[in-house]
Amino acid sequence: MTTTYLVAVSDSQAESFLKYGYDLVAGFAVDAADVADVTEVSALLDLLQLRYPDSPFRDDAPLDILHIPADAFTHARHAVGPLHPQAFRGGVIDFAPYDGSGIAQGGGVRTDLLLLDPCRLTAGTRLWRFTPGESEPELRGVYHGIAFGWEDTETGTFAAGVPSPYAGALVKRDWGDIPCDVEIVDGKPVALTMVAPFQPEAEDGFEQLESQLWAKRIAYDDSLHVFTQLALAQLSGIPVRVMRAVATGEDEIKFHIVSMLPDAPYCSAVNFQRWAGATYNALALPEDLENKNQQEATPVSWDVTDRPAATAIRNDPFDATDQNTIVQETFNLLGQTTPPSWTEVSLQVQIVGDQVIYEANAKLSEDQGARLKVIPTAILHYLRQLKKLRIAAGEGPFFTIVLHAVKEGQGTVSLNAKALPPYADQVPESEWIKELEIVKRSGKEVPEWLSAKVLSPTAPTSAFGPGAAQHEINAPDLTANISSASDSE
Fold first, then answer.
1. DSSP state of 168
2. pTM score, two decimals?
3. How far apart are CA 164 and CA 179, in angstroms?
4. CA atoms within 13 A on the CB side of 414
5. Which residues share a beta bridge with 346?
6. 38-69 burial, b if ≥16 CB within 10 A, otherwise e?
7. Strand duo 226-235 + 238-247: pairing
8. For the segment 395-448, what is each residue's pLDDT rounded down to a tens digit?
9. Helix-, strand-, coil-residue percentages of the chain, each rounded to 5
């Protein structure tokens, strides 16, 4: 049986589908077959992690749900936290009630929580509306592919948008690459429909549709090169994927981009907007994107009948119990999220009790300094885990850790397990009490200043905040070129 992904969308997103033919989707998902008997809105909110802060979704309001049939170009991973064995690139981090366990629960059902990669909708996708108190949902629309787009079942009208070359299938022609839908029969491609916003001059046979798009259907043969294009880049050090080009007025074109890091606190802090569960987007000028590269991905198999719902699986599970692995992942993630022109990067993290305060700085080309406004949340989890592992190994806790790396690949780690940490005055007494117990349980000598701190009043500060510096640094704003995307939740 082919997997069907169940994904929630906001009212504005549902309107974009039916009114404008919008065809991109992402976010938390579950296997629809596992939750087929769940029709209560409140249960669906629980399953899809929709009770996050400032959520537009409510128990007493209708909920729009997509049923998306899997195809060769749709992919999902287990939505798990940074220390989970199946975590990729820092894992998936979102606001509560998401807990990183990879499990979705609601309406008496327990199933895998998935993160659907940003993709084009597949033909046959259905938009359902679930209403509180109603046992059956209402079918609002059916997506018929890029040629005809969305059918509004209430009005009978169709809406199709210009398909993006950055999501979904493309076919290579002598004159260029063009979006297409591939028809599959018995697990094999038999035909494809190409769609363009204009009549191609270099190829005959395209017909204009009511949507003003131009389409041509051809038989499939093995000489055709069908693929999906991944346009990757960095924006102020943030790894991103381009999803489509957007006209913003005055003949200005911006790219709709999605962060490659599914990290809600991190993305929120750098001016990205929530598009869907653990998925954040923004608009950026093409000239502001750095390290641009394009990758082509071709289907391993067209037949997805027996393909599991989670298609991205680590063959070598992440070992969160190994100190070397933790340190290596920290350096990897730090290097991947630093501006491309960096030559050196330094991160100082103070961990006291349950509180983390950090400062991160980079040296760019021509010896220009830059303060990193925020670092990936997974790094903080890694370093807290490192502290726990050291205690378990009998090495004793540390109060501060400093990581320094140069671009040539050299990295150093320094630990402070004795001296007063640099941001001690920002730690509340409650955290010092926790830290004192940690040191005592480790069997290591308790520093005199730590005992004194427990008895000294200090000003509280929030855990996992933006950090504190001993000295203010005049540095460029690395998020100045990021603007909000209009199609967030």
1. S
2. 0.90
3. 7
4. 10
5. 361, 404
6. bbbbbbbbbbbbbbbeeeebeeeebbbbbbbb
7. antiparallel
8. 889 999 999 999 877 899 999 999 999 999 888 888 999 999 999 988 889 999
9. 20, 35, 45
